[in-house]
Design a protein that fits this description.
The chain is mainly alpha-helical. A hairpin with a 5-residue loop joins strand 1 and strand 2.
Length: about 425
């Protein structure tokens, strides 16, 4: 039977049977259910995204429904590890755009906004903070954003002008976001001027407002003035860098912010982030500048130098400060045939730092691997005195690390 479709994109006369609501009833998860809750969140988001591909309004309805259930379902879960918070943020990153992009009519969208607002009011730990941060986008239309701004401004103004400290309004970012969406840029700046304590989470809207008015220089100064105790310098650096890059001032952006603003889960990821934003810079120059920002941690740039095929520099870095032995051993194994001299240096460096007690969860196998690779690399490099070099390394330190290495190599030496 053919299904009729309403003008807002939702199917008329049929009710979609969602799986996730049964798993997100109030109090569904106990104190030690963080791992299960994270898994259920991923499954729910996957289910909603799958529906949204074919019926975007229905998918957005599912997203709103899940957001309504997050706090009641997760209220009693231990979130101290941060894993649950990260899972919720990831879910919001996926779901909020579905709600924004859904071609819903005004009546449907207004109902969504009312439901989401109620969910944010009931949220005990601000899981839904990112929803408020993008409230202006969720409004979609300038008219709706104006309406919400009109309702929220009096409360926010009263909160920020109250002489008694400690007042908090959970709709602060929603108000600022709506003013931006309604193109009321100067009002954003004027309203933020009432806040007695510079708070970057709010002031970033002021930077956006100034940029929208074409005042890039003022936006840069405004961002810099937002620094202070407990403010995220890395986020401010990133914003200032973006302002300068958008103005074509790449050299200044690199010099003042580029190296500090680089983010990544590893030193190699930080290098790649900088290299991607500044393709006009030579990789060797970027690496040299990054190394200077971490005095005493030169060894942690070993993998980056290796990837750039700067083998001599990589070994120099591994010699200057501690480097993870497993990283060095892996390099020795990977380059045993193509760069045997580099492989030898890497293996010897691994033995050195193991001997000095460095390494994460190392075992005797790690020591033996480094030793065997050193011998193989020495054979390929035609180096005859490698055993003397290893004995010299072991004699340099007599601590617990040295005893562990000697015991591990007792059957080899």
């Amino acid at each position: 039977m053919l299904r009729e479709v309403q003008s807002n994109g939702m199917t008329k006369g049929t009710i979609h049977k969602w799986i996730f609501p049964a798993r997100f009833r109030a109090g569904s998860y106990g104190w030690k259910s963080s791992k299960l809750a994270c898994q259920r969140l991923r499954e729910a988001v996957s289910e909603i995204k799958k529906v949204a591909k074919k019926e975007p309004v229905l998918g957005a309805e599912g997203a709103v429904r899940l957001l309504e259930k997050i706090w009641p379902a997760l209220e009693h879960v231990d979130s101290s590890s941060g894993a649950l918070g990260s899972a919720v943020n990831k879910a919001l990153d996926d779901l909020i755009p579905l709600i924004i992009k859904a071609p819903a009519d005004a009546k449907t969208r207004n109902k969504w906004l009312e439901r989401l607002w109620k969910a944010m009011e009931d949220d005990g730990v601000d899981y839904l903070g990112p929803v408020g941060d993008r409230w202006g986008e969720l409004c979609v239309s300038v008219e709706t954003a104006n309406q919400w701004a009109g309702e929220l401004i009096p409360t926010l103004r009263s909160c920020w002008t109250d002489p008694n400290p400690g007042n908090y309004f959970h709709g602060a970012t929603a108000c600022l976001s709506c003013l931006l969406a309604a193109r009321r840029y100067q009002e954003v700046v004027d309203l933020l001027a009432l806040d007695r304590k510079p708070f970057w989470h709010y002031r970033r809207y002021g930077v956006e407002a100034l940029l929208a008015m074409g005042k890039k220089s003022e936006a840069l100064k405004y961002a810099e003035a937002s620094r202070g105790l407990n403010q995220p310098d890395s986020a401010i650096d990133k914003t200032c860098e973006d302002v300068l890059i958008s103005s074509g001032l790449h050299d200044e952006a690199y010099r003042r912010y580029g190296l500090k603003a680089a983010q990544g889960n590893s030193y190699l990821a930080r290098f790649r982030a900088v290299a991607k934003r500044y393709p006009m810079k030579a990789p060797v120059e970027i690496l040299a500048d990054l190394i200077k920002t971490t005095p005493g941690e030169e060894g942690k740039w070993f993998a980056t130098a290796k990837d750039l095929k700067l083998y001599e520099l990589a070994l120099q870095l591994a010699d200057q400060s501690p480097c993870e032995p497993k990283t060095l051993t892996r390099a020795a194994r990977d380059f045993l045939e193509s760069e045997p001299e580099f492989a030898l240096g890497s293996a010897l460096a691994a033995l050195r730092w193991l001997n000095e007690g460095w390494g994460y969860e190392v075992t005797s196998i790690d020591v033996i691997d480094a030793y065997d690779l050193a011998l193989k690399a020495a054979d390929r490099s035609h180096v005859d005195n490698v055993l003397d070099q290893i004995r010299g390394l072991l004699d340099q330190n007599k601590g617990a690390g040295s005893a562990f290495v000697r015991q591990s190599l007792s059957s080899r030496m």
